[in-house]
Design goal:
Its main location: secreted. The chain has about 325 residues and is an all-alpha fold. The protein contains twelve helices and two strands, in the order αααααααβαβαααα.
Length: about 325
């Protein structure tokens, strides 16, 4: 009994140390210019392409929801060996070249010091702030993973019900409130017609949960079953303030203007509707909740201390 009690004490003492190297200002001594470099390069990209916020948010989410926030999503397939990039849900993830640009600058300033996993986290944070979202600090000290397998990729799909999506989020230690909050990142997101046409009357599948004006608008963009639009056009998930990080997404889905089925389900399901209404009525509440939720998401499955590695090239393992 004494041995058991001693073991528990040792475990409780050691548990916080698992995150001892994940802290705000991790690079303050080893690479003091790291966060400034990331911010500058993200700012330059945002000035040319405001949609990069959506791209980075999606990359961060898809990375953390697979093996944890370890930059495994960045690995290129090589020599017949597949990687997460080749999984279906990751086919339209973008922003890789921005991560490359940041990594190149950081390697010049502080070789083999700043992880690719931290670059994704910091770049996402900076892009959210640039789009009008919350300004928050994130702990750093993540290390890069050594595995990237397309078979591991299993993220919530665009047609998921609230209960299906919640199962995925709960498995990562996230609550219903945090799920509804993080899906609010769709306020700056977009999708492609191929993910929407199953809900449109022009494709013979009128979804009664979609506002008729939105149905007509999307039909003009996406075409019809007899003549679908070429090149699978993009459609914004927030049709009102498409490039602004705000709570308008929630107001839109309350008006049945959710483009993706999973988004509209948030407003229609009794389980989540109250949270949606609360965020729609209070932008400040959403902003604070989002900052808290994405910081928590950024801790999923992190590698610290001597686990993993610090990649020299974000697209390839060092070995």
């Amino acid at each position: 009994m004494v041995k058991l009690f001693s073991s528990i004490l040792i475990f409780l003492f050691l548990l916080p140390l698992a995150f001892s190297d994940l802290r705000v200002g991790f690079y303050s001594k080893s690479c003091p210019s790291a966060e400034t470099i990331v911010r500058r390069i993200v700012q330059n990209r945002f000035n040319r392409d405001r949609s990069i916020t959506a791209g980075l948010l999606r990359m961060h989410f898809h990375d953390c929801f697979v093996r944890g926030c370890d930059a495994s999503i960045l690995i290129d397939p090589k020599g017949g060996k597949a990687s997460e990039k080749q999984a279906g849900p990751n086919a339209s993830v973008r922003g890789y070249e921005l991560i490359d640009e940041i990594k190149k600058a950081l390697e010049k300033a502080c070789p083999l010091t700043v992880s690719c996993a931290d670059i994704i986290t910091l770049a996402t944070r900076d892009s959210v702030a640039l789009a009008g979202g919350p300004k928050y600090t994130v702990p750093t000290g993540r290390r890069d993973g050594l595995v990237s397998n397309p078979n591991d990729v299993n993220v919530p799909g665009p047609t998921f019900s609230v209960s299906q999506a919640l199962q995925s989020f709960s498995a990562k230690g996230l609550t219903l409130n945090e799920m509804v909050t993080l899906l609010g990142a769709h306020t700056v997101g977009f999708t492609h017609c191929s993910f929407v046409q199953g809900r449109l009357s022009s494709f013979g599948s009128r979804d009664a949960s979609m506002d008729s004006a939105l149905d007509s608008s999307l039909g003009r963009t996406c075409g019809s079953s007899s003549r679908p639009a070429r090149n699978d056009p993009r459609v914004f998930l927030d049709q009102n303030t498409s490039f602004v990080f705000d709570n308008e997404f929630y107001n839109q889905i309350l008006k049945k203007r959710g483009v993706l089925k999973i988004d509209q389900n948030l407003a229609d399901d009794a389980l989540s509707r109250g949270i949606v209404s609360g965020f729609a009525a209070n932008d400040g509440s959403f902003m604070q909740s989002f900052a808290n939720a994405i910081i928590k998401m950024g801790r999923i499955g992190v590698l610290v201390d001597n686990a993993g590695e610090i990649r020299k090239n974000c697209r390839a393992f060092n070995q």
